[in-house]
Amino acid sequence: MEIKTEKQIATYGNYINGEWHEPAQTLAVFNKYTGEEFARIARATKEEVTSAITNAHETFQTKKLSPYERYEILMRAAEIFKERREELALIIVREVGKVLKDARGEIDRGIQTLIASAEEAKRIAGTGVPLGQPGNENKMAFTVRVPVGVIGAITPFNFPFNLTLHKIGPAIAAGNTVVLKPAEVTPVIACKIAEVLTEAGLPAGFLNIVNGLGQEAGQYLLEDDRIAMYTFTGSAGVGRHIKSATGIRRVTLELGNNSPNIVHRDAPDLDRAAELCVTRGYINAGQACISVQRIYVHRDIFDAFVEKAIKVAGSLRVGNPEDETTDVGPMISEKEAKRAESWIQEAVEQGAKVVFGGTREGAILQPTILVDATPDMKVVCQEVFAPVVSIIPFDDIQEAFDHANNSELALQVGVFTSNIQIAMQAAHELHFGGVIINDVSSYRADVMPYGGLKNSGIGKEGPHYAVQEMTEEKIVVINL
Ligand code: NAD
To answer: Domains in the chain, start-ordered, CATH in brackets?
Structure first.
C-alpha cells in the first residue's frame, strides 16, 4: 500500500517481493491540469533496481503458477478493476491530463486486455513438426513454448493503464516474472495495478515495480543480464538506445508514428471521415502513437473536407479534463505544448496556414488544423504528438500512397474509399504494420496484432502475439 507523508500526499516506493519499500529519494507527480503535486514516487537507486531484479529472478527459478492459476488471477484482477473503475479513471485524469470519458475508456480497454491475456494463459501451445526428409523415418518432433524468464517492462506516459497491462498481462499469462519501470510522469496507476494483482492472488515476486527516471531506473534495468527480455513502449530515440544496450537479448519495441490517413474522392461517407480524422487527431490531446496527423484528401473534395473538419474542431470542448463534457485536455506538460506550438509557428513561417486553433495557454494547445503544409515541415515529417493535424491535397491515389510511405515511421495508416481495388492496392502497397480501411490510423482492437515497421518498432503486441514474443519455442525430437 502507499505510504502517506505528513502532508497526506500518497507516496509510492518500489514494489519488491510483494511489499512497498520506503524510498530513500522521491520525485513529485503533478496533476497535469492544475499543476498541483498529487503524489510522490521513489527515485530508485541502482541497489533498489538490482534487488527487484534479484527477487524476480529467484521467483522465476523457485515458484511456478499453473496455466489455470494464471488465468484465475488475471480474471480476478479484471473483476476488481471493474469495481474500482471510477477511482482508477480519476487517477488517469489527474496524472495524464486525459479527459474523463477517455480515461474511463482506457480502464475498460485495459480490463479487456487483461481478460484476453487470461484466456491466452490456457492456450499456450507448440506445433507438430513433420520430419519428412529421408533418414528421419524413426523420428517424431514437436515444439513446446516455455517462458523466457524475467521480463523488463518499460512504459510511456500516454496510456499508462492499458499499455502497462499489454505488457504485464501476457508476461504473467506466459509464466514469466516482471520488473516494471513505469513512466515517471504517470506512475500512480501502475502502482494501483500492482495493488490489484496482489489482491487478486498474484504471489510475491511475480510483479516488481521500480519507480524513477528513465536514465536511472530504466538504464539500470538495461544493464542487468538476468533480464531475458525487454518490452518497451515509448519514443524511437529511447527504443534505439534499448536495442543497442541489450545485446542479443530479446526486445519488443513499440515506438512512434506520424500517422497518415488518406481520404479518396469516393470515401463512403465524407462527414464520418472528417469527424473521425479530426476527433482522432485530438484524442488524449494528440498524444497517441497512432493519432491522426497527416490527412491526405483528394483535391475534388478538399475544400468540402476542410470545411467539415473546421466545423468538427469547433464543436469540441477544451479545458478541464475532470469535467464530463470536456473533449480535449492539457498536454503532458507546458514544455511539450510549447514545443508543439513552436512547430506550428515554424510551419507557418515556411508557408503553412492555420485554419483552426494554433494558440496555447499553459499546457493546453487548442486543437489545430493546418493547410498548405509541405513534406519537409516538422508537423508533417516528424511525430508531432500534439493536437495538430495537417490537411494536404492529392490528385492521384498513387501520389497519396507515395506521400504516406515517405516516412521512416510506419505503425498504422487509414484509407477511406469505397473502391475495392484501391482498398486492396492500399493493403499491398502501404508499408505499415496496420492498414485500416474506412477507419482511421488510430483504430486498434486490443486483441489484434499491433506493432510498427521501419523505425516504428520490432515485434507485436496484442495478448496472443505478445505471448509468442514472451515465450521461447523449443523443439523436441523423439527417436522411436
Ligand atoms: P519516452 O521514450 O520518453 O519514455 C518511455 C519510457 O522510457 C519511460 O518510462 C522513460 O522513463 C523510459 N526511459 C527514458 N530513457 C530511458 C533510458 N535511457 N533507459 C531506459 N528507459 C528509459 O516516451 P514517452 O514520452 O513516455 O511516450 C511517448 C512516445 O511513446 C511517443 O513517441 C509515442 O509514439 C510512443 N508510443 C508508442 C506506442 C506504440 O504502441 N507503438 C504507444 C504509446 C506511445
So the answer is: 2-255+456-477 (3.40.605.10), 260-445 (3.40.309.10)
Kindly report the number of other CB atoms within 10 A of residue 75's CB atom: 16
What lies within 8 Å, CB to CB, of 266 at 6+ separation is 417, 418, 419, 422
pLDDT tens figures, 195-237: 999 999 999 999 999 999 999 999 999 999 999 999 999 999 9
Q: Considering the candidates 289, 341, 383, 461, report the single residue annotated as catalytic.
A: 289
Among the listed residues 444, 114, 404, 411, the one whose alpha carbon sits nearest the alpha carbon of residue 254: 411
C-alpha distances in Å from residue 6, one per residue of 9, 121, 187, 369, 400: 8, 43, 21, 47, 59
What is the C-alpha separation between 81 and 76, in angstroms, rounded? 9
* Residue whose cell numbers read 518497451: 232
β-bridge mates for residue 39, sequence order? 29
The string of pLDDT tens digits covering residues 56-88 is: 999 999 999 999 999 999 999 999 999 999 999
Please give the radius of gyration of the chain, using alpha carbons only, rounded to the nearest integer: 23
Q: Is the CB of residue 56 less than 8 Å from the CB of residue 177? A: yes
- 307 CB contacts (<8 Å, ≥6 apart)? none
Using CB distances shorter than 6 Å, the residues near ligand 1 are 154-159, 163, 181, 183-184, 214-215, 218-219, 222, 233-235, 238, 241, 254-256, 289, 383, 385, 411, 452, 457
DSSP string, 229-272: EEEEES-HHHHHHHHHHSTTSEEEEE-----EEEE-TT-S-HHH
Query: Catalytic residue at 254?
Result: yes
- The terminus-to-terminus CA distance of the chain in angstroms comes to 56
Strand 128-129 and strand 3-4: the pairing is: unpaired
Query: Per residue in 272-283, pLDDT tens?
Result: 999 999 999 999
pLDDT tens per residue, range 117-176? 999 999 999 999 999 999 999 999 999 999 999 999 999 999 999 999 999 999 999 999
C-alpha distances in angstroms, 198 versus 76, 161, 459?
10, 16, 29
**Helix/strand/coil (H, E, C) string of 336-368?**
HHHHHHHHHHHHHHCCCEEEECCCEECCEECCE
213 contact partners, CB below 8 Å, separation of at least 6: 27, 43, 184
